[in-house]
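Inputs:
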Amino acid sequence: MIECRSVTEVWEAIRQLRVRGAPAIGVAAAMGVVLGVRDETESDREGFLRKLDDVCHYLGTARPTAVNLSWALQRMRRRAQSLPSAHPSEIKRALLEEAKRIRDEDEAMCRAIGRHGEALIAEGVGVLTHCNAGSLATAYYGTALAPLYTAHEKGRRFRVYADETRPLLQGSRLTAWELHRSGIEVTVLCDNTAGTLMKSGQVDLVIVGADRIAASGDTANKIGTYPLAVLARAHGIPLYVAAPSSTFDLAIPDGSRIPIEHRSPDEVRRGMGALTAPPDAPCFCPAFDVTPADLITGIITERGIIQPVTTERIREIVGQQESPASVAAPG
Amino acid sequence: MIECRSVTEVWEAIRQLRVRGAPAIGVAAAMGVVLGVRDETESDREGFLRKLDDVCHYLGTARPTAVNLSWALQRMRRRAQSLPSAHPSEIKRALLEEAKRIRDEDEAMCRAIGRHGEALIAEGVGVLTHCNAGSLATAYYGTALAPLYTAHEKGRRFRVYADETRPLLQGSRLTAWELHRSGIEVTVLCDNTAGTLMKSGQVDLVIVGADRIAASGDTANKIGTYPLAVLARAHGIPLYVAAPSSTFDLAIPDGSRIPIEHRSPDEVRRGMGALTAPPDAPCFCPAFDVTPADLITGIITERGIIQPVTTERIREIVGQQESPASVAAPG
């Protein structure tokens, strides 16, 4: 737990990945805006709004590619703009309410994903997951992990297998930690072991999160998701993506257009501190990969499960309302 | 470099993976037998042979899956048995010669694999490999890496991609190191990134080693090989296994009968020293997986390439002479 008492501390927390996971970043940024204008003088409305703009701009630089970050900041700005004649003290109150609303909506979104997905988690099943899309990535109990928490609350018993998720090991460090703590049976494995686990018959389904989903359903998620999808298909195991509708970027037609961040080679070469490769050996280290829609059985959203994953079904379920993607899309 | 001066040190070195790679284990075990009986009294022939048996049995317990281990030990035993009336001092000399012969044969075997496989390494290709089946796994320049070294000696240029190979990182620590040192262009990647690399069109073929090959061609190799084979097939990329005929175990009909060693959970939980998972979280950590023959394009042996990989072709090429497998087979 980190307590942030200034906008600088929030910026740092986002920048240094102390807050990570798209939904959690959005909530933190909204709260950061409140902190950023909290001590601003209330006598000068124009000055107050300029300060608000500065704060939003500053927070937006913490992780320039995170779609939920710019979405949350845009939403805070628009809340202020919706009060054209309000006194700064009123705007402050409205901003705090808006930030809490973003948090509450995120929690409600997680609960809804859990509700829609929990039927997939039958008694006794084995579920494989990758990276962390749990309570450490959102305001409540996660996206990919929400169906698991919901099934657990209903008393169902099942096994979870957590890919450790190289290079940063979010699976072993975060997912295994939070599930273990909740009393859910969890086994850790190296990413390269999932194929053997599937072949052994112990995996009944795979659930992963998403960083961005194109209009076609092609899904960018943590590196290592795509091979899992190929393996799941080869073994006849269903693979579900769990993500809020805000993760869809309908302006992007398919996965080939999703920009992929490449990380520092030292995340691979110095995984947990020690040097484990020649220091000057080049590394290939994309942070995400793209899983084509045809390898995805269904996408669990807060509005229901999109299955089969087609452009039409996606438009039906998430095309109708404002999402971070459509807000953040240029033009 | 580790100098072992006792059989216990050799056992430890094999157990702790200080010597690893099937051929290198065989050579080390043979040398270990020599060390184990070196100081034995030479006056009592029966006592000497009992001691030899004990030493072989003891060394055989160091690693369960490695067929070269039991093969080399059996060969040393048979060398002693072939001298029914010899004095223990004569047997000692014969054992030392036999151990050196195993080493020399291994070197000749690596060179032959290189010769047979080098034509696959065309100018400009991209080759993906997993784990380490190079000079650090054999008495000379390896099995999977031998075709690369041979092509390199012929002046051909190509790119190698080395899977880091969790949990022990033999790919980034050994393969990348030895190729880099030899002037071969090598890029390191996390195991979970191979799928994206293949999809990007940068991989023309995959070459891996083998720990044990069944009569059907099903191949046990370092964990993470099987998913590579599934991915290679999905991307239309040929996958070759490079292994000496001694790696075949024709007494084992298919891969389901190959015993798979499971390693300590701490190799996963404390992979790079630091604890990276809940300390009491269970881990699934088989050391090897089995790739079915139908996912293998060809097997490069010192006697030629077995292609297609069928029981009949395997018997033709490796079935006619004593192999570790047929020696080690019970009955």
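Residues 325-331 of chain A have pLDDT under 50 and may be disordered. Flag for discussion at group meeting.
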